[in-house]
Structure formats: C-alpha cells, structure tokens
Amino acid sequence: MMKLYEFDKKLILEDGSEYFGKGFGDHDERVFEIVFNTSSVGYQEILSDPSYTDQGVVFAYPLIGNYGISADDFETKTPTIGAMIVREFCPEPSNYRSIMTLEEVMKQNHIVGISEIDTRKLVCHIRDVGSCRAMIADINTDTAQAIKELREHVPPTDAVSRVSRKETEAYAADNAEYHVVAIDCGMKENIIRSLVKRNCRVTAVPWNTRACDILALHPDGLFLSNGPGDPQDVPEVIETVKALHGKLPIFGVCLGHQILSLSYGAKTYKLNFGHRGGNHPIKNLATDKIEITAQNHSYAVDADSLNNTPLEVTHINLLDNTVEGVESVKDRVFGVQYHPESAPGPQDSSYLFDRFIELMEEVKHHA
Hints:
The chain is α/β, with parallel strands linked by helices. It has 10 helices and 21 strands. It is globular.
C-alpha cells in the first residue's frame, strides 16, 4: 500500500467523502459524475465508449492497464470519459496486441485518472448513496472549497451534440442486402461492425438529422444509437423518431431505447446508481430465457408510463425489475436498454441484430 506522503491527488465527492491516491493520465483538475462499472475486462472499450462522457468511472476490477491498448478495440476515435478511478494502475502492459499504454491514450485525450483508491469501499458507497458529483484534484486542494464548487456545479446537457459525428458517413458491406441509417447520439464502433457483418451498409448521420432527410436516403431500417446523458436533453431526436413511426423498422439501443420510448409518450427517470458492467441478468418475457448482458446507463423507462402507449415490455432486469426492452409489433419497432453489440461483454444478445434484419426483410416482402 502506498504511503500517504506519496499520494499527489485526491478524489472528493459532493457529500464530503475524500479518498487519497496517485494521479495518472492527464493531471488537470476535473469535475464529473461518479459511477462504477463491474466488468472484469474491457477497460479500453469503457475508456472509449461515448456514453461515459462527463462521467468518472470507478472500476470494480482491481487491476487496470495490464494489457495495454489495442488498435482494434476503440469504440470511438476520441474518448470523452470524465475520469478513470482504479485500485491498481499498471503502467507497463504485457500483450502482443498492445500498441501503446493506457496512460499514453489518456494523456493524448486529456483524461484524468487516480489510482491506489479503495475501490471496493467506494463502489459500496456509490451503491448506498447513489451517483453524485465528484472531483479529482491536487492533494493540497481545500476540501471545503471543493465541496462548495461541486454542489454549485451545473452538469452540462449538451453531451450528445458534443460526441455525435458532425457529418454523414457511409460504411460499405461486401454483400450489402440492406441499407440502415443510424442516428449517432454517441454510437459505439462495434454497433457498425455488427450491422456490416450482417450485410448491412450503414449510413451514420448526426444526432439532429431531420426525419425527411433520413427518408431521402431510402433506408430499409433506422438504428438509434447509445449515447450519454438524459434522453430528455435531445427533444430533436425524439421528434425525428416520432415522425418515422410505422414508416420503417426501428431498433434502439440504450439511449436509443429511451428515445424510442419517449417518442411514443412514455416517460424516463434517473436510476440511483445506474447499471454498468458485463454481468447483468435480464429475462426475455417471450421466451422465458435469461440473458447475461452488457449495460451502461443512468436512466430507465418508467414501466407504468407504457400503459397508454402501443409499446409492450419485452425484457426486464432481474436485479431490480426495471424495463429492459420494449416493442410495437404493428410499427415494427423495438428497443433494448442493454448492449447487444457488447464490447466488452457477453454475446447472449447478439440475436437482436438478426431480429432487426428480419423486420427489414419483412418490409421488403410486403413492399
């Protein structure tokens, strides 16, 4: 255990909790929402998942950085995670796929980190009191002043516009049978890979693309991506999806699932500490099968609010019974709260991409 005099940073929570540690990555002061992730692998994918924008992630797994960074495992080109909070940071990885260290990537992208934290204690604390504002600062920072700053901090509401692509981009498939337009609200690269692998050419469009412009691309289906923040912060996307009900098959994931639900008149709410990790059990109500899923979200769809909509619940979370999936058979739309593309995570739910293909095929046959 590192001695106190060797610490150079501290983590301060708005409730007054304080943890001392050693800084790595960028060394600026940073304010963020603190959350935790229970995955045992996949720190690079977590680092580069746009859904973690403005969030400091506490890693429940104790050793981070040991297999370095691979060129093939990024989920976005420019990571925007708020901070990385770990028990033990490994500065010298051992892995034949590694092209650079975790710290090098963090410095390139101005991401702060702190190690030597009692992450077991911290995860339990967040689980008990909920996610909150936090700060990584120099060890000599006045704690009382930092707490005042945290309590006065106004969280940004423009995360989706910051992480979404600015221009339309096309992704070809070798034997393209379907054309999917994907609204990028902070989309992970493995979503595009999963669609291309299934013979879909993908046109990824910015978050604020209008419904008429999407239809002008003549897609076979619409994909609504994951992304950061509160789904109610993007009313433009909600209105776009609403205008496309029944006009083409729609598949939403995570934030996309929440946006889809809101577009039908349902409501969403913020969870106490969210769901993040690669080991969350959900139940498919149609098959009674249990899937182990990858999750990363702070918000959920209110089950009661679905009663006055055409949407039906298809999946539930077995840890807290929250809504994990919805669908409208008539409109050929569905969404899931978890990540069928995983990266990292189990592969139990990849069949959902095949279901999307089936819906697009049905429309082709009915046309």
